């Protein structure tokens, strides 16, 4: 029997404070009924490389960070919510959902699906994908 695998996708504005992002991640995990240790990957868009928020989240929760190019995110199936802002800024209609789905898909864990569709705060988004693997 195979176990479930999880990836948490995040998107955030440059000015987003880490406290806001941590609270949103914790709320998302709570809504999804998951402990942080259940998540294998923290995923986002390549444009966030070097962002202190990503590094702080990865360190706090012990997750491996995976970043995806906008083209890969734009081509990821299974996205439920589309953001005009993300489309305009990055060329992808989704960051959090698409990044979470892309991480599971790229690790050969298919077909991934959203366990938690986009959850939003003032300056961030979080989504969680799951798949058997």
TrEMBL record:
GO biological process, one term: cobalamin biosynthetic process
InterPro entries: CbiG_hydrolase (IPR052553), CobE/GbiG_C (IPR002750), CobE/GbiG_C_sf (IPR036518)
Domain CobE/GbiG C-terminal stretches: 7-129
PANTHER family reported for this sequence: COBALT-PRECORRIN-5A HYDROLASE (PTHR37477)
Protein name (database record): CobE/GbiG C-terminal domain-containing protein
Species per Swiss-Prot/TrEMBL record: Halotalea alkalilenta
């Amino acid at each position: 029997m195979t176990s479930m695998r999880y990836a948490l996708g995040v998107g955030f504005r440059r000015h987003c404070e880490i406290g806001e992002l941590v609270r949103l991640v914790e709320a998302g995990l709570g809504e999804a009924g998951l402990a942080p240790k259940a998540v294998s990957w923290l995923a986002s868009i390549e444009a966030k490389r070097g962002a202190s928020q990503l590094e702080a989240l990865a360190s706090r929760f012990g997750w491996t960070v995976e970043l995806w190019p906008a083209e890969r995110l734009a081509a990821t199936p299974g996205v439920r919510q589309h953001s005009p802002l993300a489309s305009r800024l990055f060329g992808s209609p989704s960051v959090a959902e698409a990044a979470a789905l892309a991480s599971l898909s790229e690790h050969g864990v298919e077909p991934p699906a959203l366990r938690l569709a986009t959850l939003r705060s003032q300056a961030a988004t979080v989504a969680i994908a799951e798949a058997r693997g």
